[in-house]
Amino acid sequence: MGYAVFHASKGSGGGGKLGAHIDRDESQKQTFKSADPERTHLNRDLLNNNFSKMKLEDAIKKRIEEGYTGKKSIRKDAVKFIPMVMTGSHKEMKEIFSDSKKANAWVKANYEFACKEFGKENIVRCTIHLDEKTPHLHIVAVPLTKDGRLSAKEIFGNRTDLSDRQTRYADAMRDFGLQRGVVGSKAVHNSEGWYIAKQKEAEKAILNPLERLNFLERINPLKKIEVLSEGLKLAQNHKFDSDQKAQREESKVLELSSRYEKLKENYSAVLRSESRFKAEQAKIITKLQENIRYEVNRQLQSRFSLHKLSSEDRKKFANETIFEVAKKQKGINQELYDKAMSKDDFQKNLSQAFETRAEQNQKRENRNQNRNRGIGY
Question: What is the C-alpha separation between 306 and 318, in angstroms, rounded?
Answer without folding.
Answer: 10
